[in-house]
Design brief:
seven-stranded mixed sheet; 131 residues; 30% helix; alpha/beta; 7 strands
């Protein structure tokens, strides 16, 4: 199992979906929230709302996620972990273009990193309506 102590800050990032249930909005429909987290600090670098009718972030959104993550330390990580069941091919391709090694891992390997963030997010937004 992976652990934050295995990493230095900004050495590896994790891309994952924060929500369990789509976020409903009155005017724009339903969304999932994709987040980028630093593996060492478990700090969420950035996030993006992805319409549920799209399987994953677009190429443009993937590029924007990585750019906003880069803004924190002015460098890209060496590795990007993505849960193996998470649709994120555009993000993986964009990361590889930035010379980031993409590693697909079973989601349970990332539970220690992402569990608390998901819990807090779902307590706040878990399936409720957002104006």
């Amino acid at each position: 199992m992976l652990h934050p102590r295995q990493f230095q800050v900004n050495e590896a990032w994790i891309a994952f979906q924060l929500n369990d249930v789509p976020i409903h909005t009155e005017s724009d429909g339903d969304f999932n929230c994709m987040a980028l987290m630093d593996a060492a600090s478990c700090f969420i670098l950035t996030s993006a709302l992805v319409p549920t009718n799209e399987a994953e972030p677009s190429k443009t959104e993937a590029r924007r996620l990585l750019k906003k993550g880069h803004a924190h330390k002015q460098e890209m990580p060496k590795t990007l972990f993505i849960p193996s069941g998470q649709p994120a091919n555009n993000l993986a391709l964009e990361a590889e273009c930035q010379n980031i090694t993409v590693v697909r891992v079973p989601e349970d390997q990332l539970a220690l990193f992402i569990g608390e963030a998901r819990e807090a997010f779902n307590e706040r937004f878990g399936g409720g309506r957002v104006q």
